[in-house]
Specification:
327 residues, alpha+beta, 2 domains, 7-stranded mixed sheet, 7 strands, transferase, nucleotidyltransferase, CD_NTase_C, cGAS/DncV-like nucleotidyltransferase C-terminal helical domain-containing protein, nucleotide-binding
């Protein structure tokens, strides 16, 4: 007896239809939702570049200026949020060549020589160059411009960095494979390596794959954190935005594909809470949003997994604030 062939017409349920509609809207609106930030970033970069050009100190240096942080990642919750700029010198660069074999190391040594220009020297040149136009001071990590009557001074933080290259291959001179990051030191002189471009790229991709729910959840978590600090449920500064964003980035896309922002946010917190409680070893190995660094550890840009789990518990206790859509 021949088996019956059953043909089923697959249709999307209400939640899936809602998510697919949101993804379409997110794709169509991606340009105009970021226009104000694009303008502000371009303006700030232009002001910084003009100030540097007024001084001859950096004329011989190749450098790049680009944005990072909540404004460029579109996760800010206040129009007056800082504009975070990276000022990165291109040569000489810091590198990690641990993954290269000996022939690749020969190609590396043939292509580059260790330069005498350090990050500290670049920072001092930047401070001196900007000092010809503004009153500047070095903060914990960034250069701050003290100009009370200037929007640039009030809003812009400048991270002075050296290019960092995490090599994976160098098959021949002129052919090299690496991840580009930034290297700098904090006020205590500790080395910090981060990958802001990968952070932004991965966040944008996840937001697209979740129909905009991911960044909505990040903004909502920031509002909840503010409430938790005000109610003294957590210490001020204990839950930095970078940590919250990286935690929420690790939540699987499917968790965010719900019919409402509130459900997506609560589901993300529940996933993180369950992961920390039921599989602490898995939780402790979560990566940063850049996909390269580990989120937890002992370096200056890492946190304690138990402390992060406690922050998730506090956010979970708070009644979900009104979800925040893109500005």
């Amino acid at each position: 007896m021949a088996a019956a062939v059953v043909r089923r017409s697959l249709t999307l349920g209400p939640a899936a239809e809602s998510w697919h509609a949101r993804r379409t809207v997110a794709e169509k609106n991606a340009a105009w939702t970021s226009q104000p930030d694009t303008f502000l970033l371009a303006w700030a970069e232009g002001v910084l570049r003009d100030a540097l050009r007024r001084s001859p100190l950096l004329d011989a240096r190749s450098y790049e200026i680009f944005g990072q942080g909540s404004r460029v990642n579109n996760t800010y919750i206040e129009q007056a949020s800082d504009i975070d700029l990276v000022l990165m010198v291109k040569m000489p660069f810091e590198s990690n060549v641990d993954a290269l074999d000996e022939p690749s190391m020969d190609n590396f040594r043939e292509s580059y020589q260790v330069g005498p220009y350090s990050w500290e020297e670049f920072r001092e040149d930047v401070m001196a160059a900007l000092g010809e136009s503004y009153l500047v001071r070095m903060g914990r990590r960034c250069v701050n411009v003290d100009a009370p009557n200037s929007i640039f001074g009030a809003m812009v933080d400048i991270l002075v960095a050296t290019e960092y290259r995490l090599y994976s291959a160098f098959p021949s001179p002129g052919v090299e494979v690496y991840e580009q990051g930034v290297f700098f030191r904090d006020r205590e002189g500790r080395r910090i390596v981060n990958f802001p471009k990968q952070h932004r790229r991965n966040g944008d991709q996840k937001d697209l794959c979740t129909g905009g729910r991911f960044k909505e959840a990040v903004r909502t978590a920031k509002r909840a954190r503010r409430l938790a600090e005000r109610e003294r449920m957590i210490a001020e500064g204990a839950a930095p935005s970078y940590l919250l964003e990286c935690l929420l980035y690790n939540v699987p896309d499917i968790v965010y594909r719900t019919s409402s922002p509130g459900d997506a946010y609560r589901g993300a917190l529940e996933w993180l809470r369950r992961s920390h409680r039921e599989d602490p070893m898995f939780f402790a190995e979560l990566p940063c949003q850049n996909g390269i660094n580990r989120l937890f550890g002992e370096s200056p840009d890492q946190w304690e997994a138990c402390e992060a789990g406690g922050i998730v518990d506090v956010l979970h206790e708070i009644r979900s604030p009104r979800p925040v859509v893109a500005a």
